[in-house]
Amino acid sequence: MYDYLVVGSGLFGATFAYEAAQRGKRVKVIEKRDHIAGNIYTHEVDGIQVHQYGAHIFHTSNKEVWDYIQQFAEFNRYTNSPVANYNGEMYNLPFNMNTFNKLWGVKTPAEAVAKIEEQKKAANLSGEPKNLEEQAISLIGTDIYEKLIKGYTEKQWGKKATELPAFIIRRLPVRLTYDNNYFNDTYQGIPIGGYTQIVEKMLASDLIDVETGVDFFDNKDEYIKEYPKIIFTGMIDQFFNYELGELEYRSLHFETEEMDVDNYQGNAVVNYTDAETPYTRVIEHKHFEYGKGDKDKTIVTREYPANWSRGDEPYYPMNDAKNNELYKQYKKLAETVPSVMFGGRLGQYRYYDMHQVIHAALTTISQEFDK
Ligand code: FDA
């Protein structure tokens, strides 16, 4: 007899299952994909760890979470420093002195600030920004907006920047140093040997049974009858058969290619910021791990944003005001089924990064066990 059914073997489900087993509980995990680990799944090709569902870089300033994840893998010192390709012009990201120097030839922070201010003034905007375009220009001026934000953002959301709400860009990180480190977090890295091993170790206990290729919705009513408690990490609106309406998601399509070269683009992540290139990012997986992989092979993945409709993979929740309001109503509805706890990116309808998912799962564990 199991104490818990965990639906979904992503980072949330796996962390919950691991912690429950540590407390002597028996856990059944079901996963509809044919592999564990959800979107952090990696697998080896030509000695290279391939991030099947897009680039995954672990970063956090939460020491507790950083120490926690180290139990399951050793991390390298990878620092995310993506490069933007705008019609063949290459710029460092995030926007920093290297970017400003390349764009305008400025050399000092004071010169960069003066240039940004000059551009903001020339745009002649007044009042509260009415859309994403106005918001971005009011923060950083026209050059960076036109070359590095507009095309990328419009592809990402499938909408014109003038139709997107301003709040999507609350702040734009502008770094007045020659520092290409994308994240401001204290800790950052990639697990040596990939992410899947982390979930494998989390689910390795004798108290945990895992079944892949099993969809909860094929037997929902039986599961609810049979298991005293369920941790559900799939889509909360689907759980309730969309009875309050559909939450919106953004999907992605990945195209992966093996190439007979050692080094294709010289960086793990290159963002394509023009409007014409249909993909947003190209990932070259071997650059996440130093010196790994066959010398004459590389694996490259192009990431295409896509509209979502039922049956597609829901990669990103669309956390705008309308969807957040609908989610609130689903959350209320969830209180009517106290034996089910909703967790993770889809269960809580939030764009969680990995460190936030671990933190959220540990919080659920303490609510469950430290009562
Ligand atoms: P996740 O989606 O991983 O797991 C849910 C699992 O439930 C899935 O395996 C799914 O198949 C299963 N499931 C759903 N419905 C089911 C059903 N009905 N029956 C059975 N199983 C079901 N984070 C970060 O920190 N750094 C980064 O660089 C990135 N990069 C990144 C890139 C891209 C393209 C995406 C989409 C996401 C990221 N992330 C990220 C976020 C990261 O992927 C995310 O935080 C975790 O994977 C979320 O873990 P969950 O367990 O919540 O969901």
Task: Outline the fold blueprint.
Elements: E1 4-7, H1 11-22, E2 27-31, E3 42-45, E4 48-51, E5 58-60, H2 63-70, E6 83-86, E7 89-92, E8 95-96, H3 97-104, H4 109-123, H5 132-140, H6 142-157, E9 174-175, E10 187-189, H7 196-202, E11 208-212, H8 220-226, E12 229-232, H9 236-239, E13 249-259, E14 269-272, E15 281-284, E16 298-307, E17 316-317, H10 321-334, E18 340-342, H11 344-347, H12 354-369
Parallel strand pairs: 1-2, 1-12, 2-11, 6-14, 8-9, 12-18
Antiparallel strand pairs: 3-4, 5-10, 6-7, 13-16, 13-17, 14-15, 15-16
Helix pairs in contact: 1-12, 4-5, 5-6
Dihydroflavine-adenine dinucleotide (FDA) is lined by residues 7-13, 30-33, 38-40, 53-58, 215-217, 233-234, 252, 315, 344-346, 352-355, 357.
Write up what this structure looks like.
This protein has 371 residues and is α/β, with parallel strands linked by helices. The protein has three domains: 4-79 and 187-248 and 317-369, 3-Layer(aba) Sandwich (Rossmann fold), CATH 3.40.50; 94-175, no CATH class; 249-307, no CATH class. 32% of the residues lie in helices and 21% in strands. The protein contains twelve helices and 18 strands. It has helices at residues 11-22, 63-70, 97-104, 109-123, 132-140, 142-157, 196-202, 220-226, 236-239, 321-334, 344-347, 354-369; strands at residues 4-7, 27-31, 42-45, 48-51, 58-60, 83-86, 89-92, 95-96, 174-175, 187-189, 208-212, 229-232, 249-259, 269-272, 281-284, 298-307, 316-317, 340-342. The strands form five sheets. It has a seven-stranded mixed beta sheet with strand order 7-6-14-15-16-13-17. The chain has a five-stranded parallel beta sheet with strand order 11-2-1-12-18. A hairpin with a 2-residue loop joins strand 6 and strand 7 (89-92). The protein is globular. 37% of the residues are buried. The model has no long low-confidence stretch (mean pLDDT 96).
